[in-house]
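Record type: ASSEMBLY
Status: queued
Input:
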Amino acid sequence: MKILEEGKTVKLSHGNGGPETSEILNSILFSKVEETLKRVEGGVGIDVLDDGATIPIGDLGYVVISTDSYTVKPLFFPGGDIGKLAAAGSINDVVMMGGRPVAILDSIVVQEGFEINELEKIMESFISTLKEEKVSIIGGDFKVLPREELDGIIITTTAIGIAKKPIIDRPKVGDKIIVTGNLAEHGVLISLYRLGLEDKAGNAGLLQSDVMPLSKYLLPIFEKYGEKINAARDPTRGGLSEVLNEWALQNKLIIEIDEKSIPLREPVVKYTEMLGIDPLHLASEGVAVLSVEESVSEEILDELQKNGLSDAKIIGEVKKEAKEMGIVLMKTAIGGRRVVEPPRGELVPRIC
Amino acid sequence: MKILEEGKTVKLSHGNGGPETSEILNSILFSKVEETLKRVEGGVGIDVLDDGATIPIGDLGYVVISTDSYTVKPLFFPGGDIGKLAAAGSINDVVMMGGRPVAILDSIVVQEGFEINELEKIMESFISTLKEEKVSIIGGDFKVLPREELDGIIITTTAIGIAKKPIIDRPKVGDKIIVTGNLAEHGVLISLYRLGLEDKAGNAGLLQSDVMPLSKYLLPIFEKYGEKINAARDPTRGGLSEVLNEWALQNKLIIEIDEKSIPLREPVVKYTEMLGIDPLHLASEGVAVLSVEESVSEEILDELQKNGLSDAKIIGEVKKEAKEMGIVLMKTAIGGRRVVEPPRGELVPRIC
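Status: finished
Output:
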């Protein structure tokens, strides 16, 4: 663990969701908490890098819980807004742990002078997403900061679900890697906005955010295939590369994916090339990555596609145990092999 | 319900925790959520104004959960800092519902350029409070915003506890009102800082924040007296007047308190007079207000005092049912009676 030096300050890259985020969290938090307080006994806590945490509740199984602060800019974008993102994002983190979401809490911090009709639109979008999901809103907070101290709005949501048996990410050798939809759609759209290029893409209807809750697609699969699902994660901050690298590193595995099979739409490829960003580093907000036993992989793919996720693909597999360090490899379209690195540095701030 | 007009903007007063906060939340949220989605079936949600929410979990009772965003400035103050406040504040909200806190999640949003050694101090204080309470930290989020968009740090914590039988605030006629310590200590200290007057008070050692977790003082009382505790709340934003007014209004009660018996230390009285602020509107962060059956009130007071809360006092009672609207009255020190209004307007921003 890298010790942070005296006099250092927080960088934008510390918030990118990749190795720099792990570094600062290790330094200020994880390394300072004694082992027994890193989880509730029998559950999952900060000792395991996953989308959420679990608390055992006897015969009912586990409470699954996840919290995230949403700071995306722009607040409104094709396909959604910060309200939909704040609902779907935390719901998906519970779903990825195998939890059935039942409730959400929201804490809103907004600047003085924020337009109330914009706030209403955001909340309507938040509420309608919860309504579709039948997730209750059971509590929250509301604070206002002077305009000198905050520009815009931050929504922190905590989603709570129940799981008979949570999915704790442990990909196994031989597993197939499935992604449930086209990747990087949300990330490339927001990147274009951040760079002032939205007219080129979003507004012309070529791109829109993929933000959506995944419960109805994934919970039936998780229920049916149970212990044959070895890992599930949504590739938000840091994209597919971050998810696969975390899996590979933590479990000392060689994961190999095939570039040709990665579902990326043509405008996404075009704009990531234009921006010089690797699409595997860019966020999706309505896609899952699964690591499932080979014996059921085709069947699961088939069911996902039949149930509406027609772009789902098998993109690779867990090849073998690593001798030294876990690593992610990719067979490139032109026949070679390259290492898929996790994102480093300040990529695209404020995508979620 | 007052409908917010087109073109209006969010005011600082919307975040004061009083009637204006209720107004805006009614307008943008509560009135838009269908009844069945205001709670998890069998639990408490946004349909009840209380410190937290509950979710039934079978034989074990209920999960109690509460979330709050901490935005206090200054970040460091005599008696604590934003880290201790973020831990104690959400823990206390779970305790006030009768829950035994078991876990917390924290979501940190910090500005680019924030000093890492300040962040470390804040996290050390956060962690040491959790350690004393034996509360596990099980998850969270970390985001960095550019300095143009955020000044400082916002910490949102969600605390989770378990309660066999939660305390849902329903004060009853005949109940005695107990406060467990000197009031307004946190609020007056932060007010002086906000006005640039900290040299007068805090730095001279006259005042310090009362921020502390209340679990060890209150959970044994709640366990012992069970259903004889009819309500429990911590008077944070909006102070004692907000808690009592909410109780009176929601339950259509006349609550009467006695000015002479309200525990306020001399420097607190002096500085609130100087500032022209009613101390009953100012926050405490380590005090509870209880509404308990008269038959056990003296005994409870005695136990609180013996266990270290030596300033605890009985300050009044639930007089009778209101014919029209619930109201809070106070016998003044000079023998009259006045209505205790809830705080309105922008009082003291950023106290929590």
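Annotation: Chain B has three domains: 1-32, 42-163, 176-339.
Annotation: Residues 192 and 275 of chain B are 8 Å apart (CA to CA).
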